[in-house]
Amino acid sequence: MSSSSESAPTATPRGALRRPAELSRSVDVSGLVDAEGGLLDRAIFTDEQIYRQEMRRIFAPSWLFLAHTDQFHRPGDFFTTWMGEDPVIVTMDKGRKIRAYLNSCRHRGARVCRADFGTTRNFTCTYHGWSFDLEGDLVSVPNKEGYPESFETSQWGLVEVPHVESYHGLIFGTWNPSPVSLRESLGDMAWYMDAMLDHDEQGTVVVGGVHKWVLEGNWKLAAEQFATDWYHVNMSHASALQVLAPAGKKPKQEIVHRSGRQYVDPNGHGAGFPVHPRNRFDAKTVHDWFDYDALRERLGEARVEGPLTNGHATVFPNFSYLPVNGSIRIWHPKGPDRMEVWAWTIVDKSMPEEVREAQRLYNLRTFGPSGVFEQDDGENWSEVQAIAGGFITNSVALNYQMGMGGEREDGRHPGRTSELYSDAAGRSFYARWRELMNTRAWHEEDRA
Predict the structure, then answer these.
(1) What gap in Å lies between CA 340 and CA 342, rounded to an integer?
(2) CB 330 within 8 A of CB 319
(3) Would you call 96 exposed, middle or buried from its count of C-beta atoms within 10 A (0-12, 13-18, 19+)?
(4) Domain's final residue, options 142, 175, 208
(5) What is the Cα–Cα distance from 431 to 36, expressed in whole angstroms?
(6) Residues 434, 29: contact at Cβ < 8 Å?
(7) Strand-pair category, 131-133 with 138-140
(8) Distances (CA, A) of 253 to 1, 149, 239, 277, 310
(9) How far is Cα 267 from Cα 247, in angstroms, rounded to an integer?
(10) Mean local confidence (pLDDT), 31-48
(11) Where in this chain does the record put each Rieske domain (predicted)?
């Protein structure tokens, strides 16, 4: 599925309204991110004004993950989510096109859909009863005769996300009316994503629904870790590695001391993965089912020995995934010091039921809301955030210098890579963040 609106977003009449520039003051963040020197100012995790600027300049113009195509099978199927802090409805219209709308009634602003998912014919606001069809048009207005003759329902439909596209079953949207395509935005990152998403022609499906939980911590802490940080594994996850090791034995040295590569993308994406000829899926049932020779023929040796299984990745700004257990997740920002995590388990559609269930259970045990690895990560992010507001603490720079100068074309993996233990993708993540934060978005150009 690949689609975009055939016309401009739904018109938003403003009449005599003029928003003062003071409400959209911008901070020059150049001095807060020294990507070249590997230093970071903690204010980017705590400052409210910076956070509000992120909504305008990071989340409004970027391609953001919305849902998986397997969540929509017939017209009227819908799923409600967020783009930054903007609530949106993703739905299949009568023509079987996937569309997304701002989940806010044009009358008084309440959500027109409060369910997480389901199937419907219309979205009706429970405040005053304005109703909108699957194409976003306003189709019912109680007491319509009370409005002036100038009132036209065609002008007051739901505000539509102007561009919605998908890549191997992952649906993304952007508010930018003139973006680069999703595929162009992904660049070389698509090669690494294919190692998880393109095992066979049938694609992937969702199993087990969507798990949601709230963490104290800035959204960037999670996004950057999944882009760049294998370094924390041996320390933070020591107990989990011990639990997963055979009874009475320590984790194997080749697991504790992994070697591999880290992909560094100029658009802020990142992926780290061990490289070993015997990389395998962790769940035994899943490992036994896969035909690794067929995967090598389809994906190539480099992907099977690298990003196919163990590893971590982030598509800038806030979509991440873990290939080994089929986990995909979004870090929804909920203020400078809070995030809401939404996580799916995806599996190959060709997988038999018992293999799907094995992968789902393995994901829950490791990276579900109470997973043995997931709990460690959430504790780290919350700890970092808990003390970041202190006056002295907030003024002390953070070090992102591991692996500086080691990025190169390695001849085996697309784009530039560094060693597995490196902050390279983290530096690139924040360099992209700095660039967007200091660049006017389309809506600011219109005002100017």
Answers:
(1) 7
(2) yes
(3) exposed
(4) 175
(5) 8
(6) yes
(7) antiparallel
(8) 44, 77, 15, 16, 16
(9) 44
(10) 97
(11) 63-161
Please tell me whether residues 109 and 169 are part of one structural domain: yes
* 165 and 208 assigned to the same domain: no
Report the alpha-carbon distance of residue 291 to residue 295 in Å, rounded.
6
CA-wise closest residue to 124 among 67, 115, 84:
115
Number of residues in the chain = 448
* Domain that includes residue 421, residue range: 190-437
Q: Are 98 and 129 in the same domain?
A: yes
| Gap between the Cα atoms of 430 and 306, Å rounded | 25
Q: Residue 430 and residue 105: Cα distance in Å, rounded?
A: 35
Token pair, residue 439, equals 């660049």
Q: Do both 354 and 432 map to the same domain?
A: yes
SS3 200: coil
Alpha-carbon distances of 193 from 38, 69, 251, 319, 363, rounded to whole Å: 27, 16, 28, 12, 18
Per-residue confidence at 248, pLDDT binned at 50, 70, 90?
low
Q: 33 lies in a domain?
A: no
CA distances 198 to 1, 189, 269, 413, Å, are 15, 13, 19, 17
Return the beta strands (E) in 379-415 as ranges. Answer: 398-399
Q: Are 394 and 388 in contact (CB under 8 A)?
A: yes
Phi, psi angles (nearest 5°) of residue 355 = -75, -40
Would you state the pLDDT for residue 370?
A: 86
Predicted pLDDT of residue 5: 47
Q: Out of 170-174, 244-248, 402-406, 421-425, pick the least confident.
A: 244-248
Contacts of 259 (CB under 8 A, 6+ apart): 274, 275, 276, 419, 420
Final residue of a structural domain among 126, 142, 175: 175
* Number of structural domains the chain divides into: 2
Amino acid at 76: G
Q: Please, which residues bridge with residue 87 across strands?
A: 82
Structure tokens at 82: 């967020």
CB 302 within 8 A of CB 412: yes
Cα separations (Å) of 393 from 276, 380, 401? Answer: 40, 16, 19
Residue 109 lies in a domain: yes
Q: Do residues 286 and 362 touch, judged by C-beta distance below 8 A?
A: yes
CB 328 within 8 A of CB 346: yes
Both tokens of residue 41? 């100012």
CB distance 50 to 30 below 8 Å:
no
Question: 170 with 198, same domain?
Answer: no
DSSP state of 145: G
